[in-house]
Amino acid sequence: MFREKLRAASQRNNSFLCVGLDPDPELIGGRHLPGYLQAVIESTLDLVCAYKPNLAFFEALGPSGMNLLIESLAPVPKEIPIIADVKRGDIGNTARFYARALFEAYDFDAATVNAYGGWDAVEPFLAYADRGVFVWCRSSNPGSADLQDQRLADGRPLYEAVAELARSWNTRGNVGLVMGATYPEELARVRGLCPDMLILVPGVGAQAGDLAASVRAALDERGGGIIINASRQVVYASTGADFARAARRAAEGLRDEINRERKAALAAMGSGGGETSW
Amino acid sequence: MFREKLRAASQRNNSFLCVGLDPDPELIGGRHLPGYLQAVIESTLDLVCAYKPNLAFFEALGPSGMNLLIESLAPVPKEIPIIADVKRGDIGNTARFYARALFEAYDFDAATVNAYGGWDAVEPFLAYADRGVFVWCRSSNPGSADLQDQRLADGRPLYEAVAELARSWNTRGNVGLVMGATYPEELARVRGLCPDMLILVPGVGAQAGDLAASVRAALDERGGGIIINASRQVVYASTGADFARAARRAAEGLRDEINRERKAALAAMGSGGGETSW
After folding, report:
1. Is residue B91 a part of any domain in this protein?
2. Is residue A200 part of a domain?
3. Are residues B147 and A118, on separate chains, in Cβ contact within 8 Å?
4. What is the pLDDT of residues A258-276, one digit of tens each?
5. pTM of the entire structure?
6. Per-residue pLDDT at B273
7. B26: burial class by Cβ within 10 Å (0-12, 13-18, 19+)?
8. ipTM above 0.90?
9. Residue A78 belongs to what domain range?
């Protein structure tokens, strides 16, 4: 099961940090792409709970893109889950093939999806009970207000309706949410609606989210239930020859900062800042 | 420009029919995939205004999928536009890479996108002014009501808000909509909101849309502005050795039926059932 695999990796590395792999050729320069990402992965293996490749960046490389992705991910041991960031969504018959691609052809542990098509657009992913499915709920980009913040007739913003739908779909315990880091109040409200679900928080770092506020808002009652992602901040911590060491330093700093915020939040909740309790 | 290329192909073949390429290995059986699709394409080249490969079906084939797609599309002459059905959508920096993949690495003429991320999730596609961008507005699957039909505080269903957003983004004339065929009333309402935009209607045939009602509802004032897609109904018209001839017969029948409905609708509008007037 995805959630158990994630929990084990998180406990082993004492980490709620996910490193996002978004290879931008302009930032990598003339370097060999799989080699660059392999070095970043090898230098952060003991600091993360998951890796999250963003498939857009590999698709942009053309027909060899997915082979480059597979090669890039080779150093990830099978104990660390890999979340495919793809935001896929389409009607049922098409969704079945997207799910087959992600969970069979590429064997990812989890994927992000788009729920605009409703129940039968997401169910083909959910049917893989051992995989994680993160429903895109609230993003942190400027245009996110265009639709996600639209007020429904019953007063809820659309993203809350998405969160509640996702909760209703969580009959197998494999549904999570993607919630941008720059809106801690929205994060806290959604955590209240979905107390038992995983929340994947992208956008820490380059997207200017407030790490401390996001961690506190997203934590569940037991001080867990979160995956805090950083991509560019780690992968391009340095553009020099020391990029792998710089990635490690950045990942270690983020991991420790997340843990400090978790401890403080747990203490404030009265649990005495005890052990990780996934 | 996409729209001019589409118009020229439509006029040359007197057709508003798009053939969707959704290769399901179970239906193709043991046949060579690119060869199967090439035969379907070669037998329908003079009957369509566009082809629409659904990339989910190729991604499900694993790392060789996109090469198989390129091989499958080889018989399409450069005069016939190819619409990538991908429903992509993500925050701006990621959307830029999806757009680069679709419009540069693969050089598609148009793509379907998901607007959940708002303006900056779609703008990287729109920036390719010579390509078409079809915003997923209303689908015809059972779960489409879950979000698309949600009433906003101002009384509009969400899909109408999406249509109006898409219209506001159409400053370069390259935005269209994807509207399922099974809801002619919704189609007519959206056509009223977006009189000048292309409407791509998937789901004729296997998805049980009412072809006649959909054509009448989606047509613009000049009797054009529509792309009527059929996938399985054409590609798997026969599963026997005569599949290519059967695909041609199915495509010809659909093309002619669409044209009959167009003529009837134009006559009813008082234009005397005249010539195609894109």
Report:
1. yes
2. yes
3. yes
4. 999 999 999 988 765 455 5
5. 0.96
6. 47
7. exposed
8. yes
9. 2-268
DSSP letters along A163-218, please?
HHHHHHTGGGS-EEEEE-TT-HHHHHHHHHH-TTSEEEE--SSTT---HHHHHHHH
Predicted confidence (pLDDT) per residue in A154-198, tens digit: 999 999 999 999 999 999 999 999 999 878 899 999 999 999 999
**What is the per-residue pLDDT for A268?**
86
Domain count, chain A: 1
* Predicted local confidence at residue A181, as pLDDT: 80
Report yes or no on B38 lying in a domain: yes
Q: Is residue A175 part of a domain?
A: yes
- Token pair of B90 as six digits: 């993500």
Residue of A57, A85, A96, A97 to mutate for B, most B C-beta atoms under 10 A: A97
Q: Give the pair of three-digit tokens for residue A75.
A: 């150093």
Rounded distance, CA B53 to CA B72, Å?
10
What are the tokens at B241? 């050795």
CATH code of the domain containing B168: 3.20.20.70
Set of chain A residues whose Cβ sits within 8 Å of the Cβ of B70: 63
Element spanning A109, H or E: none
The order of strands in the sheet holding B17-21 is B50-53, B17-21, B226-230, B198-201, B175-179, B132-138, B110-113, B83-88
Shortest alpha-carbon distance between residue A231 and chain B (Å): 12
